[in-house]
Every structure is written in C-alpha cells, then in structure tokens.
Amino acid sequence: MDKKVTVVGAGNVGATAAQRLAEKELCDVVLVDIIEGVPQGKALDLTEAAPIEKHDAHLVGTNDYDASQGSDVVIITAGIPRKPGMSRDDLLKTNAGIMKDVTQKIAKLSPEAVLIIVSNPLDAMCHVALDTSGFSKNKVIGMAGVLDSARFRSFIAMELDVSVENIHAFVLGGHGDTMVPLPRYSTVAGIPITELMPQERIDALVQRTANGGAEIVSLLKTGSAYYAPASAAVEMTESILKDRKKILPCAVYLEGEYGFNNLFIGVPVKLGANGVEKIIEISLAENEKIALQKSADAVQKLVEDLKKL
Ligand SMILES: NC(=O)c1ccc[n+]([C@@H]2O[C@H](COP(=O)([O-])OP(=O)(O)OC[C@H]3O[C@@H](n4cnc5c(N)ncnc54)[C@H](O)[C@@H]3O)[C@@H](O)[C@H]2O)c1
After folding, report:
1. Is 175 one of the annotated active-site residues of the chain?
2. How far apart are the CA of 187 and the centre of ligand 1, in A?
3. Which of 7, 13, 35, 250 has most ligand 1 atoms within 8 Å of CB, for mutation?
C-alpha cells in the first residue's frame, strides 16, 4: 500500500481498527502496544487472515515506534478504561500520562501525520495530544461525533424500519453525557426526522444515543464498545487518506467558532488530506445553544482538572 497508518493501543478498539483498515486495503498498518507479544500476535493473526479476506495490506505489530516512522495517520487508542473504585480523575491522570508519552514518540517520527484521538476522556485527551505534539490544530482530531451519530442513525433506522444508508444525523458537543444530538439536522432520505416521528419517540432515541456507550458497557460488563468506535475512526482515516473531504462531526480545536475559544468540541468539519480543512458553522436554535454550552462547560472543567495534574 502507498499509505501507512499507525494504531497505538492494540486492545479492542485498536485491533479492530487495524482489521478494518487492512481489509479495506486503505493502507499498511503498524500496531503498537506496551504489552509484549500482543501487537505482534494480533498483527500476525490478521496477516494470516489476508489470503482469505483477499487483501495485500501489510501489518506489523511492535512494542517500539521505529516501524511507525512516516505514518500518514496515527490513531491513538492507548489508555486504560475505568475500573471499579476508580474516579474519573484517576482515569484522566493515567490516560493523560499515556497520551503524553505516546504523542511525544509519534510526533518525533511522523511529524507530518494527522492524529486521530480515541482514548478517553476524549476531549481532554485531544488537548494533551495538541499541546504535546506541537502539531497545527487541523492535524489533531478527536473521534466521538462519528460514533455518536452512527448510534443515533442506527436507532432511527430501527425505529422507522428503513435502511441505515438513507439516514444522516448530527451529534455535536463533547463526548459524554452532555453530547447534543440534533434532530432538526437528522434526516431520512432528506426528510427531517421531526416530520417522521412524534417528539416523544425522538426524545427517547436522543436519550438512548446519549447513553449509547453506557448501554454497551452494562451489557459487556468487562469493557466498552469497540466495533462501532473502530468503524468511526476508520471512516475518518479513509476521508483523510483518500482526500475525500467528507463532512463529519469531530472533536476539533475551536478558536472563536460557535463562540468557543481554545477548546475541543464536537462540530461538523470537512476532513481531507490536510486533516480538518474547514469547520462548518451551522445555525443553532436557542435550546441547542444552551445544550452545547453545557457540553462545553463539562469539557472546560476537565481541561481545568488537567492543568492541576
Ligand atoms: N472516543 C470514543 O468514542 C471511544 C470509544 C470507545 C473507546 N474509547 C476509549 O479508547 C480507549 C481504548 O479502548 P479499548 O476498548 O480498546 O481498551 P483496551 O483496554 O482493550 O485497549 C487499550 C490498549 O492500550 C494499551 N496501552 C496502555 N498504555 C499504553 C502505552 N503507554 N503505549 C501503548 N499502548 C498502551 C493497552 O496495553 C491496551 O492493549 C479507552 O480509553 C476507551 O475509553 C473511546
């Protein structure tokens, strides 16, 4: 392949993203993890599936970063999920340390790469990656909105019994309980869902979307979602590698857009070879503005907590 993508963190999200990237023949893949044997084993296993899946992408698993040199895109999924007894601050501190370490190594070897951040707490981790890498703001992008929107789209499709392909949906804001699904901008074959279902059903789907991550955690019990998160990171990666210029909701660094400054917030952007090529500003109703402000306040609080570490 003529493109290279490094996936840091060979856990559930990282390994699934590596699989999807290879099977779509988008790029060669370097899988990096701190645990000896895990990235090597998963990369070899995926390589052995290639004859059956009929792709010629090369996969390498490693514990050091040498093989990642010159990557076009780096997807960072390294981190720990929350365990019983751990506070949010514990997770913030541990994952901020991991994100700093990973970003330093990546930035040195792939100074031209676009970084796609997946690790949680997402918006705060984007701040760490931007500060540590020294990359321009268009090259540090958080994955959350594509996943949250995909969840909303799935629920709309289930509700109306129509193809998921007909459905577009937007979810703005931070990645968390305060995310802001936008029913007005969510359509089925171009028809706003507000025309297709009663308000109470829309409210129920919005609520389910906001709890989408927690719903999976409560079913799995030992981890969090990874198939859809990996798909979301790969859709963003594809738009960058192929310069497709898709409009996707992503967490990006705002400097005045939507009235926010120096904060990562999920908004619609155009993703192409240069990363974030445009931030799309859509007009929001008063209640949507209030919800977005609440979401931004939650992100701001985490950023303040980061500064205290
Ligand atoms: N943004 C989103 O929408 C979204 C969705 C799903 C998961 N996540 C987050 O993504 C992260 C990964 O989730 P997962 O389910 O794959 O977890 P996981 O535990 O399966 O995988 C994480 C991997 O990171 C590795 N790791 C830890 N420290 C490292 C380091 N310093 N260098 C390299 N690798 C290191 C671990 O060894 C592990 O293999 C978590 O923080 C999770 O909360 C975010």
Report:
1. yes
2. 33
3. 13
Token digits of residue 303: 């950023």
- Angle of helix 199-210 relative to helix 145-160, nearest 10 degrees, comes to 140
Q: Please say whether the beta carbons of 73 and 113 come within 8 A.
A: yes
DSSP assignment of the chain equals ---EEEEE--SHHHHHHHHHHHHTT--EEEEE-SSTTHHHHHHHHHHHHHHHHT----EEEESSSGGGTT-SEEEE--S----TT--HHHHHHHHHHHHHHHHHHHHHH-TTPEEEE-SSSHHHHHHHHHHHH---GGGEEE-SHHHHHHHHHHHHHHHHT--GGGEE--EEB-SSTT-EE-GGG-EETTEEGGGTS-HHHHHHHHHHHHTHHHHHHHHHSSS---HHHHHHHHHHHHHHHTT--EEEEEEEEEESGGG-EEEEEEEEEEEETTEEEEEPP----HHHHHHHHHHHHHHHHHHHHHHH-
Q: What's the predicted TM-score (pTM) here?
A: 0.97
Residue 256 CA to ligand 1 center (angstroms) comes to 31
Q: What is the mean pLDDT of each run of 10 residues along the chain (309 residues)?
A: 97 98 98 98 98 98 98 96 67 94 98 97 96 98 96 97 96 85 93 96 94 91 93 98 98 97 96 98 93 92 89
CA of 247 to the centre of ligand 1 (A): 26
Ligand 1 site: residues with CB under 6 angstroms? 8-14, 32-35, 77-79, 81, 95, 98, 101-102, 118-120, 122, 143-144, 147, 175, 223-226, 229
